[in-house]
Design goal:
454 residues; alpha/beta; 2-methylcitrate dehydratase PrpD; 60s Ribosomal Protein L30, Chain: A; three-stranded mixed β-sheet; MmgE_PrpD_C; lyase activity
Length: 454
């Protein structure tokens, strides 16, 4: 570590890293991250959470600088970053850095693309900024996880603000000193509580991280200073929000090992810890077909984090359903579904799902890994079927292919943009790093004839 401190060391790297310094496989993952984020932002934009957030911020939005992805509303860049961060996360369908459970792209891409509509930004510069931002937030998350998360902080919001500040700082051309200030300004705005899971506030966290991180970079650009040890000082961020601080996770191997290359993408629109259960239930449904109607009970053995995060036995709304392993299991068995349509108010209150949900039982076992599950299904005639998932689909061991990302994108986007609009946007998303002006992505995300100013 530099004798000048963790924050400054990280800032220096964030400023000096060049796209050519980033390995090709990490750049490829950066493109996948952007494609996945864009599909989720379009897919989430019709959710009532986004409607209500837009109703509120329109009162305060400044110049029409940037696009609400998938809608065409034009807001100032900071509020556009906020809304796009909300829409990209509201379906809980976005990317995941599995070591920390951070959803990296929401804060970073939402902030960076909004700024790219304010000034000319090439796709190559956006890609480098995104990868640096993801690397910054995930390394900072590594330094305090799991204690920080266990204490009740939503790490996507709290670490994401650093990633957004670093990404936007690069696009604004910050030098080392100003990037150091930007990270400090981000640190003092870091927030997000796990208590909010299952409510609209959960998706507000990455949106606010995008907005606050971008603001941190703009303030620093204007010479607004902060502590130069905002992360590591005795009363700095890491010591205030966690009892664990391993700063080697931030500084060692910078530019040599890449957290940004470890991103994963969800096949199911809910908390990542439920994915093994949904995977098992969909596999079983494909095997037994209509016999799912004859299930007497479902018994799950899961990692303890599953019930801690998703133990809601009687969810009332679609957002709450994303935090109910019982609802997810019942819906996957009865409908074969784990996509956003499985987590609507209608699905949560469907009588047949509610009835089966009551017959799903779960117990925890420390020997079960987070991406594993053991499931026993007992039928009315006494027969039993067992299913064990070693690695859920979408994990690093069973990652989604580019073709599967395409299908996920298309399913989300066609309802908003139609078939032709989706094809144009998806094609552009895969080649965004080659663009001279990446703001074209935002323009292509707008349904025909719907662009409006705040």
């Amino acid at each position: 570590m530099s004798d000048q401190g963790v924050t400054r060391t990280l800032a220096r790297w964030a400023v000096e890293c060049r796209l050519a310094d980033i390995p090709q496989d990490v750049r490829d993952q950066g493109v996948r991250t952007f494609v996945n984020w864009l599909g989720c932002a379009v897919g989430g934009v019709s959710h009532e959470t986004v409607d209500r957030a837009l109703d509120a911020v329109r009162l305060f939005s400044g110049p029409a600088q940037a696009t609400v992805i998938g809608r065409g509303d034009r807001l100032d860049a900071l509020h556009a970053a906020l809304i796009n961060g909300v829409s990209s996360h509201v379906l809980d369908y976005d990317d995941t850095h599995l070591k920390t459970i951070i959803h990296p792209a929401g804060p970073v891409a939402s902030a960076a693309l909004a700024v790219a509509e304010m000034q000319p930004v090439s796709g190559a510069d956006l890609l480098a900024a995104m990868i640096v931002g993801v690397e910054v937030e995930c390394r900072i998350g590594n330094a305090v996880y799991p204690d920080h998360y266990d204490r009740g902080w939503h790490i996507t919001g709290t670490a994401g603000v650093f990633g957004a500040a670093a990404a936007v700082g690069r696009l604004l051309g910050l030098d080392e000193q100003r990037m150091t200030w930007a990270l400090g300004i981000a640190a003092t705005q870091s927030s997000g509580l796990r208590e909010m899971f299952g409510t609209m506030c959960k998706s507000f966290h990455p949106g606010r991280a995008a907005q606050n991180g971008a603001l941190a970079a703009f303030l620093a650009k204007s010479g607004f200073d902060s502590s130069e040890r905002g992360i590591e000082a005795p009363r700095g961020w890491a010591n205030v929000v966690s009892t664990k601080q391993d700063y080697t996770e931030i500084t060692e191997g910078l530019g040599k090992t890449w957290e940004a290359g470890l991103n994963s993408y969800k096949p199911f629109a809910c908390g990542i810890v439920i994915h093994p259960t949904i995977d098992a239930c969909i596999q079983l449904r494909e095997e037994i077909g209509d016999e799912v109607r004859n299930i007497e009970k479902v018994e799950l053995r899961t990692h303890p984090l599953v019930l801690e995060l998703t133990g809601k036995t009687a969810p009332r709304t679609g957002l709450e359903g994303k935090f109910s392993v019982f609802h997810a299991a019942a819906t996957a068995l009865l409908r074969g579904d784990g996509t956003p349509t499985a987590f609507t108010d209608e699905a949560v209150n469907d009588p047949s799902i509610v009835e089966l949900r009551g017959r799903v039982k779960a117990e925890t076992d420390q020997s079960i890994h987070e991406d594993q599950v053991e499931m026993t299904v007992t039928f009315h005639d006494g027969r039993q079927v067992n299913r064990r998932i070693e690695h859920a689909i979408g994990s690093l061991d069973r990652p989604l292919t580019d073709e599967e990302l395409d299908r996920k994108f298309i399913k989300q986007s066609e309802a908003i943009l139609g078939k032709e609009g989706t094809e144009r946007l998806l094609s552009a998303a895969w080649r965004f790093a080659e663009m001279d002006d990446v703001a074209e992505i935002a323009r292509l995300s707008v349904p025909n004839g719907t662009a409006t100013s705040a």
